[in-house]
């Protein structure tokens, strides 16, 4: 069929040099507009070498893809599909070559990519759009939704899984700390705060290791889609431990599926099992109704703080 866009995996060796030239040119000109200094070029070469090193691993291998139309290469994509994460497909790069742009070619390439990835085990899709309004509009038209930020604070888009799956809550495990950072930065972005820097991440990790804060993750399979935390202290009024409920966040794409209620219940049950006399949530007026529905129905006055 004429004008049909197809996807072809770049062949190791034969296609690698051409893919590298096109990919790095796209990243320098369309994404980062980097100056031609040695340090900038070195970072891009390092990125390409890293993605090349993932090409042969058993799970989460990188896919170097060319888009073709009538036998001519018109664009490329670079993606990783993680079978161990329910088929998450992370699209790191997507490009239609400048001479082929327009006339719906970008949409055609994107649809061809989604079809290819699904046939190769993708269950859902995620990408970083760099805060670019044009890219945001493009992927929104294909069903992607804004979905927080990653562990480095970069904004994410998600095309959610089509199938329904149960959400379970568990206490944070060490291997999920990177997911906690992603959710924490998503929470901070939602309330207008900057993402955690490396120093803040280390302080948070240390607090978790020392048991000064307990985190709970709501997980859909292996993906953490929500979180909350509890910090305990001693109340001289109650002469017992009391808890503060915080870091309450569910990814936008997974709201309305019971994650918030499951997180709240897990935190309350955890506190009850430890003889904690009360669990307090501080919230904005617009969220009062939600917290009351989740069981925080006793008003304890108004909190004031001195920020130090």
From TrEMBL:
Ranges where the N-acetyltransferase domain occurs: 5-162, 167-308
Keyword terms of this UniProt record: Acyltransferase, Transferase
Any one GO molecular-function label of the UniProt entry: acyltransferase activity, transferring groups other than amino-acyl groups
One Pfam family this sequence matches: Acetyltransf_1
Annotated CDD domains: NAT_SF
PANTHER family from the UniProt entry: AMINOALKYLPHOSPHONATE N-ACETYLTRANSFERASE-RELATED-RELATED (PTHR43877)
Name of the featured protein: GNAT family N-acetyltransferase
Species of origin: Candidatus Scatomorpha intestinavium
């Amino acid at each position: 069929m004429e004008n049909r866009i197809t996807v072809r995996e770049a062949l190791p060796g034969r296609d690698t040099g051409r893919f590298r030239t096109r990919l790095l040119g796209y990243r320098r000109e369309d994404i980062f507009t980097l100056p031609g200094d040695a340090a900038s070029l070195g970072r891009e070469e390092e990125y390409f070498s890293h993605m090349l090193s993932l090409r042969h691993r058993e799970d989460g291998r990188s896919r170097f893809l060319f888009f073709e139309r009538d036998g001519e290469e018109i664009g490329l994509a670079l993606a990783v599909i993680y079978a161990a994460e329910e088929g998450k497909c992370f699209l790191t790069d997507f490009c239609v070559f400048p001479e082929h742009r327009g006339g719906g070619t970008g949409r055609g390439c994107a649809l061809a990519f989604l079809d290819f990835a699904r046939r190769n085990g993708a269950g859902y899709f995620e990408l970083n759009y760099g805060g670019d309004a044009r890219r945001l509009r493009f992927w929104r038209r294909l069903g992607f939704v804004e979905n927080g930020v990653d562990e480095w604070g970069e904004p994410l888009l998600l095309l959610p899984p089509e199938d329904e799956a149960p959400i379970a809550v568990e206490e944070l495990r060490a291997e999920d700390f990177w997911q906690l950072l992603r959710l924490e930065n998503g929470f901070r972005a939602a309330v207008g705060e900057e993402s955690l820097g490396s120093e803040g991440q280390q302080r948070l990790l240390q607090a978790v290791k020392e048991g000064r804060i307990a985190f709970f993750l709501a997980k859909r399979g292996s993906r953490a889609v929500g979180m909350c935390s509890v910090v305990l202290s001693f109340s001289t009024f109650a002469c017992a431990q009391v808890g503060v409920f915080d870091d309450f966040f569910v990814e936008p794409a997974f709201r309305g599926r019971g994650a918030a209620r499951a997180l709240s219940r897990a935190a309350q049950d955890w506190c009850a099992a430890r003889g904690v006399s009360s669990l307090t949530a501080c919230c904005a007026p617009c969220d009062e109704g939600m917290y009351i529905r989740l069981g925080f129905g006793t008003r304890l006055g108004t909190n004031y703080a001195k920020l130090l």
